Amino acid sequence: MIQYLRLLTFGVKVEFGEPRYRHSGFTLESDGQAKKIDSLKGLLMKIMISAVLLASLGQAMAVNAADGFNCRVSPKFSSRDSLAQAVSESLRQAKQKVSLALYGFNNKDLAEELVKLAKQGVVVRVKIDAEKGAGKKTGALIGRLKSGGVEVQIVAPGGRNHNKFVVIDGNRVLTGSYNWTAKAESNWENLLIVDCAELAKSYESEWEKIR
Q1: C-alpha 182: how far from its chain's center?
Q2: How far apart are the two ends of the chain, measured CA to CA in Å?
Q3: 3-state secondary structure labels for all residues of 152-169
Q4: CB 19 within 8 A of CB 31
Q5: pLDDT tens track for 178-188
Q6: 181 near 110, Cβ under 8 Å?
Q7: CB–CB of 105/180 below 8 Å?
Q8: What is the band of 87 on the pLDDT scale with cuts at 50, 70, 90?
């Protein structure tokens, strides 16, 4: 069964598996054998074959992100940056909605940033891991969030909500290894700040699924 296909036609790239089929100009290569296609009919045949292979494998391949996304990425590292400060600065720019999915959360300063947003009319929604949420420090922080107008849900009672991301106003995503905890400030951590509406939409959709 053919397990690899790369189709490069009209700027669309799709690829998976092995062996390799590659289109370059009017050339179709298979298992090291090259056959020259000299007519438009040959090119159309190649496209039809590609379509059949994709359908038979039943896989939806993504178009190269560079063709459709216009994203700006800013990496942060604990070796050189204050990740808590970077998070705070992003939160302060929120105008409409903030959705968080976190594993560990006991950083009081970041909790206060969320409370301030809620008091300003920003919708703030937080999902926290059930086991972590049962801890004394996180439990007290959850109480503070709820009293300040933040929506808090305890999730993943039968597993782990190991996510660490926040979506801001449907166009910015913060994600990485960074837990919103006091201990994380002394760890080797990373944080990506991504301004990308399409990516934010995907993360927002995933947030809705977390139970």
Answers
A1: 24
A2: 38
A3: EEEECCCCCCCCCEEEEC
A4: yes
A5: 999 999 999 99
A6: no
A7: yes
A8: very high
Evaluate if residue 24 carries a pLDDT over 90. Answer: no
Q: Are 189 and 168 in contact (CB under 8 A)?
A: no
Take residue 37 and report the two structure tokens written for it. Answer: 């296609």
Spell out the domain ranges in the chain: 7-57, 69-209
Please say if the pLDDT value at position 131 is more than 60: yes
Q: How many residues does the chain have?
A: 211
Phi/psi at 75 (5° precision): -85, 140
**What's the rounded Cα separation, in Å, for the pair 103 and 180?**
8
Give the Cβ contact number of residue 45 at 10 Å. Answer: 13
SS (H, E, C) the chain: CCCCCCEEECCEEECCCCCCEEEECCEEEECCEEEECCCHHHHHHHHHHHHHHHHHHCCCCCCCHHHHCCCEEEEEECCCCCHHHHHHHHHCCCCCEEEEEECCECCHHHHHHHHHHHHCCCEEEEEEEHHHHCCHHHHHHHHHHHHCCCEEEEECCCCCCCCCEEEECCCEEEEECCCECCHHHHCCCEEEEEECHHHHHHHHHHHHHCC
Enter the CATH code of domain 69-209: 3.30.870.10
Phi, psi of 58 (to 5 degrees): 65, 35
Quick one: average pLDDT of 183-199? 96
Span 108-128, pLDDT tens digits: 999 999 999 999 999 999 999
